[in-house]
Amino acid sequence: MVVDQKPREFTDEEIDRIFGALADATRRDILRQSMLGEQSVSGLARSYTMSFAAVQKHVAVLERALLVTKERRGREQIVHSNPAAIRRAARLLDAYEELWRDRIARIGDILSEATPPPQNQQHQPRKDRDIAP
């Protein structure tokens, strides 16, 4: 069962690109670094044990998801985070969290209705120790 709870501002393709981009640890780290301040692609590449081309590909995935933008500055390509897109992704995750919180609350309601109230338990003497001889 697929439940459509996404905010109306997203298309399915945008959601796929955002989560696809964030599914990789290197891309999440590149996004984190770009959120701290603008970074050149060559500067980012020095942070990883992969080729410059591989880092460029990761940045391109983030750029297609609109999570970062690139700007050419001389010979450098400067990567900037896109706070608006990051907020949109956060709102999407908030919507999913709200969906699951509602479901958990409804399950709790159903369980509390199905559970009989505790009966007034009177002390029942145990034969082995509570009965006086």
UniProtKB/TrEMBL annotation:
InterPro entries: ArsR-like_HTH, HTH_ArsR_DNA-bd_dom, WH-like_DNA-bd_sf, WH_DNA-bd_sf. SUPFAM superfamilies: Winged helix' DNA-binding domain. Residues 112-133 are annotated as: Disordered. It comes from the Bacteria. GO terms for molecular function: DNA-binding transcription factor activity. This is ArsR/SmtB family transcription factor. SMART domains: HTH_ARSR. Residues 7-101 form the HTH arsR-type domain.
